[in-house]
């Protein structure tokens, strides 16, 4: 049975435009909070394939999205490379011993050895393939090497990125060494997700906007493309989605062998269509805070549909859904995406 979401990723005609939401398995759902409480901690939940499978499927049943995205976290990669990770309430993820020098990079596990330690992720995917309806696609994912490296160097989320940027401009060779090592792990990690059953994979570059143009293409996009091209060469039937957040002003220089470009909410959809719509299927891009108003949600969905015309497009938010969004509003967004695109 063909999956509408996979067909849409390849730009094929579909009966309607599919929709999913970044962070769709998460804190806005009371059902998720119940399972999270049972797990005891966020990392415990990531490490428990049965519970991770349950929360991955919840948005399909409750909100009606067209694809499931694997429940996990981008930081399981550096964690299994040997970094001590803790999720602290009110502070978020923290690495207690961030990367400071070449010896720290050399001490990290690399390549397939690190990817082999992420068995709980592959086990979750295998379970999901048994549980998911046949017509629903499963999206695997990873953080981009640059986004992962920012956490590894800064030790936690940052607004200034001063430690990573200091490394980029004062010792670029060392930054490239870290990025290359992370890239090799990510290639194997994505490949193992595909072999476990992922139908589509997405590479998230959450901190793309932290870099000026030249630095972005040298220290981030280049590595994302390396991963995408490695996967497309071996698994051409698996769509690859790229989501670099906040680089609308760099669209003229986007290149690479991948299928879908995720458009964030700060980039006008019409601009993305003009620059990239012939080369890639576009995904996005409603401002997530519009979900607080059903009226504003409908207006935005109708506008995006008007721009894209139901062709070479996947509906999504322009970043993740926020924890205090009412579930009925998320459902309204999905219903509206289906309504306007079925009428095309």
From TrEMBL:
Compartmental location: Cytoplasm
UniProt superkingdom: Bacteria
Alphabetized Pfam families for the sequence: URO-D
Residues binding substrate: 23-27, 73, 151, 206, 319
PROSITE patterns: UROD_1, UROD_2
Main subcellular location: cytoplasm
Residues of the Uroporphyrinogen decarboxylase (URO-D) domain: 18-27, 139-155
Top-tier EC class: lyase
Record's GO cellular component terms: cytosol
Pathway: Porphyrin-containing compound metabolism; protoporphyrin-IX biosynthesis; coproporphyrinogen-III from 5-aminolevulinate: step 4/4
Site entry: Transition state stabilizer: 73
Keyword entries, A-Z: Cytoplasm, Decarboxylase, Lyase, Porphyrin biosynthesis
Catalysed reaction equations from the record: uroporphyrinogen III + 4 H(+) = coproporphyrinogen III + 4 CO2
GO MF assignments: uroporphyrinogen decarboxylase activity
Biological processes per GO annotation: protoporphyrinogen IX biosynthetic process from glutamate
CDD domains cross-referenced by the UniProt entry: URO-D
Documented EC number(s): 4.1.1.37
Summary of the function given for this chain in its UniProt record: Catalyzes the decarboxylation of four acetate groups of uroporphyrinogen-III to yield coproporphyrinogen-III.
Quaternary structure and interacting proteins, as annotated: Homodimer.
Record-stated family: Belongs to the uroporphyrinogen decarboxylase family.
UniProt name for this protein: Uroporphyrinogen decarboxylase
Gene that specifies this protein: hemE
